[in-house]
Amino acid sequence: MPLRLVTLLCLSLLLGACASLRNAEPPEVTLSNVELLGITMLEQEWALTLRARNPNDFPLTLRSLDYQVFLEGQPFGRGLTNAEVTVPAMGDALVQTRVVTGLFETLRQLQQLDYKSGEPLHYRIEGSARVGGSPLPLKFDHEGEIGLPAP
């Protein structure tokens, strides 16, 4: 009988933890910085700094982010992080990640941009965050602008 009671207690604690995270608001993920790391004959490697903002009154431990970035409505790159980052309650944290893009696709996309020097580019970042203690990912989707340096 004690084993059944322990099992029931563990199950209720687990369900309670899942229920509280089920009501968690997803993090707001924005693009903080983009830096070109290198170019090869077929690819470019970009360092992206993402800012994850936690709107909840409890900390979120981000185990991973799976995301896609769009520039001016066109897909730019897809990324996946695996570094665990704890975002404090009602706070934010920076997440460093890398994206690899194809040279010809990026050149085609840059040619199509109607970019004017000094004006910001519109971006969108969407994806999901795997959060410690939750079996289900939290979806996020954010639009913003990022300034590019004048030539």
Q: Would you kindly provide a written description of the structure presented here, covering whatever features stand out?
A:
The longest helix is centred in the N-terminal third of the chain and has 21 residues, at 2-22. This protein has helices spanning 2-22, 103-112, and strands at 28-39, 43-53, 60-71, 74-80, 85-87, 92-102, 121-131, 138-146. The chain has 151 residues and is an alpha+beta fold. The chain has 2 helices and 8 strands. It has one domain (26-146): Immunoglobulin-like. The strands form 2 sheets. Strands 3, 4, 5, 7 and 8 form a 5-stranded antiparallel β-sheet that branches. Strands 1-2-6 form a 3-stranded antiparallel β-sheet. This is Water stress and hypersensitive response domain-containing protein.
List the helices and strands and how they pair.
Elements: H1 2-22, E1 28-39, E2 43-53, E3 60-71, E4 74-80, E5 85-87, E6 92-102, H2 103-112, E7 121-131, E8 138-146
Antiparallel strand pairs: 1-2, 2-6, 3-4, 3-5, 3-7, 7-8
Protein name: Water stress and hypersensitive response domain-containing protein
Domain Water stress and hypersensitive response: 29-145
Keywords: Signal
What name is given to the CATH topology?
Immunoglobulin-like
Can you name the CATH architecture?
Sandwich
Strand percent estimate: over 45%
Taking pLDDT < 50 over at least 5 consecutive residues as the criterion, the unreliable ranges are: 16-20
Sheet with the most strands? 5 strands, antiparallel
How many β-strands, per DSSP?
8
Q: Helical residue percent?
A: 10-25%
What is the first-to-last residue Cα distance?
75 Å
Envelope shape: elongated
Number of domains in the coordinates? 1
Backbone structural class: alpha+beta
**Number of separate helices:** 2
According to CATH, what is the class? Mainly Beta
Please tell me the overall pLDDT: 84
Radius of gyration: 20 Å
User: What's the SSE pattern?
Assistant: HEEEEEEHEE
Domain Water stress and hypersensitive response: 29-145
Keywords: Signal
Protein name: Water stress and hypersensitive response domain-containing protein
Signal peptide: 1-24
